Amino acid sequence: MNRIIQSAVWSFFVVCILNGILVIVKESYGPLKTSMAELTGHHWVTHGVIIIALQLLLTFALAGRFKHAELNDEFLSKMLTSGVVLGVVLITGFYIIH
Amino acid sequence: MNAPILMAVHVAFGLLGILAALVIFVDLLNLNSSNVKRIKLLSWVVLLGVFLSYVSGGYWYVVHYATDKAIIKAGAWPWAHNLVMEVKEHTFFILLVLSGILALILSQLKAVEDFKYLRLAKCTSAFVVILGLMMEATGAVIALGVRMGL
Questions:
Q1: Overall domain count for chain A
Q2: Alpha helices by DSSP H, chain A
Q3: How many structural domains are present in chain B?
Q4: C-alpha–C-alpha distance, residues A47 and B51, integer Å
Q5: Which positions in chain B touch A8 (Cβ < 8 Å)?
Q6: Is B137 on the interface with A (CB under 8 A)?
Q7: Which residue of A has its CA nearest to B128?
Q8: Backbone angles phi and psi of A29, in degrees to 5
Q9: pLDDT band at B25, cuts 50/70/90?
Q10: How far apart are CA B138 and CA B84, in angstroms?
Q11: Does the CB of A36 have a partner CB in chain B at under 8 Å?
Q12: Of A3, B7, B76, B142, which is least packed with CB atoms within 10 Å of its CB?
């Protein structure tokens, strides 16, 4: 279970950045937003499905990489904090400029 | 379900999640064997509250928001949609994933002395509270944006 927690935090960091990038790309490239809207009926619903699926997939895919490594509490906390800050800054910064 | 009731449900579940996360944070500052059971139970309340807030808010956003959006964009505070709503709807995903991670971390809390992720649990619960309050505040700004457009 420790492996899953470490993997989930790593995945969270990656997903926060990918979430920001997906926002920037879909808002900057109309056809992508249209395609996302066509998939589920609304681009935001598709966006949510992608983010949740990515978090789950990465968590289980990366879990194997933590067989021998043991990331400590402090490192994981810093990683989680960085993910939240980067994710929020990417999205807010983009919409301020956009 | 009509739009105002759906919105009230969205806010209420969000508040439930925030309050549960706040209690977890305070309990973690004073972690002892007597509050372990409560912390573990509340971690599921956080996940349930945030998830139901996501579902009810998402349904409202997809089905009912278009009318409000048009009013906001034509009104005095168009940034209430162009900036505030856009940031809110996309940062909500971060909050949703965090609430799942919090439940995952706290599922490992069995004995106080063996718990390896105290700092991580404190960080996660604090961010659920901060982002949750941000969602409540931005929701209020969006509602004001509609009023400014009427």
A1: 1
A2: 2-28, 30-40, 43-63, 73-97
A3: 1
A4: 16
A5: 101, 104
A6: no
A7: A84
A8: -125, 95
A9: very high
A10: 6
A11: no
A12: B76
Full domain range(s) for residue A60: 2-97
Model-level ipTM above the cut of 0.90: yes
pTM: 0.95
Q: Which residues of A touch B93 (CB under 8 A)?
A: 19, 47-48, 51-52
Partners of residue A42 in chain B, C-beta under 8 Å: 62
- How large is the average pLDDT for residues B41-70? 97
Residue among A18, A4, A63 at smallest CA distance from B94: A18
Give yes or no for a contact between B93 and A80, defined as CB atoms under 8 angstroms apart.
no
Q: How many CA atoms lie within 13 A of A61 on its CB side?
A: 10
Q: Which residue type occupies B99?
A: S
A95 close to B (CB below 8 A): yes
- pLDDT tens-digit map of A29-54: 999 999 999 999 999 999 999 999 99
Q: Give me the total of CB pairs closer than 8 Å, taking one residue from chain A and one from chain B.
A: 86
Residue A69 banded pLDDT, cuts 50, 70, 90: low
**Per-residue pLDDT at A6 exceeds 70:** yes
DSSP reduced 3-state for B30: coil
pLDDT for A70 beyond 80: no
Q: Which domain holds residue B14?
A: 3-149
**In Å, how far is B120's CA from the nearest CA of chain A?**
5
